[in-house]
Amino acid sequence: MKSLVLTATKHMEIQDAEKPTPKADEILVNTKYAGICGTDHALYNGLPGSANAVPPIVLGHENSGIVAAVGADVEGFKEGDRVTVDPNIYCGKCFYCRTGRPELCDNLSAVGVTRNGGLENYFTAPAKVVYHLPDNVSLKAGATTEPISCAVHGVQLLKLTPYQKALVIGDGFMGQLFVQILQAYGVHQVDLAGIVDSKLKLNKDKFGVTNIFNTTRDELPSGYDVVIEAVGLPSTQEQAIEATRKGAQVLMFGVGKPDQHFSMNTYEVYQKQLTIQGSFINPNAFEDSIALLESGKVNVEPLISHELDLSQVADVLEGKVKDVSKAVVKVD
Predict the structure, then answer these.
(1) Which residues, listed in sequence order, are joined to residue 277 by a DSSP beta bridge?
(2) pTM of the prediction?
(3) Domain tally, the chain
(4) Do residues 40 and 66 share a domain?
(5) What is the pLDDT of residues 66-91, one digit of tens each?
(6) 211 and 266 in a common domain
(7) Is the peptide bond before 56 cis (omega within 30 degrees of 0)?
(8) Could you report the per-residue pLDDT of 50-70, keeping only the tens digit for each?
(9) 212 and 292 inside one domain
């Protein structure tokens, strides 16, 4: 089989490899699609993701495919089933797992990060992190279940009610997902701020965004009950705080650099009684994410800008491919 192997920082090779054999509690997946995201950019450049990736390793933590084989102890799956995979595997034994916060697991492992992932024809995963895809969800859309689940986890950390006005800062793939997910969770007004007019217009025309703002020329208003920061830059993090009204919640979802800081008025945090919430990975969010895809409340295919093969992945990770909103790799 063909594997795209990260052999060193900023270096990938397509190699021939043996098809893996699933252990008793594992499933062998014939990969159909693998998504490329910001975590892959970080790992390619030697930065940490949800965990550290040590070359040689096969990336690809956003996957869909067909069950090719099941381990001896696996129940509920059979060869030919259409599936998607939650990459994150928790130890179940550490302090955080035992206190209901598995996303903070001290021994986190992940498909496509600490063990080989979907940028190869076949990969294995524990059956406990494999999920059936509904018949009406395409394999291409199914490969985006993991990023949807990360946004769903962020939303689940907030207290949402229909009266709220929400602002999403960032018109990348994740910001655009938050638009649809906030609406699905009942927020009556969702506005979007970004820098690409075509993306802003798409979300207003197709996904019901109330107001759009291009931050290269528009000043952001304040008065929001919920602000999602989905960029990860100090400037947008500061904008998120400034856009709030009293009693607001700010979700700091965008991933900054490990040594990054931003400034805020601490008196404003006090006086407005703000809640500033971080969000890390996606615990217990796959079932909701699949339901959102199955119901059509989240429609991802218009947001996928590029379909690649394995030979094009490094170019995307190096920034040689322009205007990428969301890229998926057609692996097999």
Answers:
(1) 251
(2) 0.97
(3) 2
(4) yes
(5) 999 999 999 999 999 999 999 999 99
(6) yes
(7) yes
(8) 888 999 999 999 999 999 999
(9) no
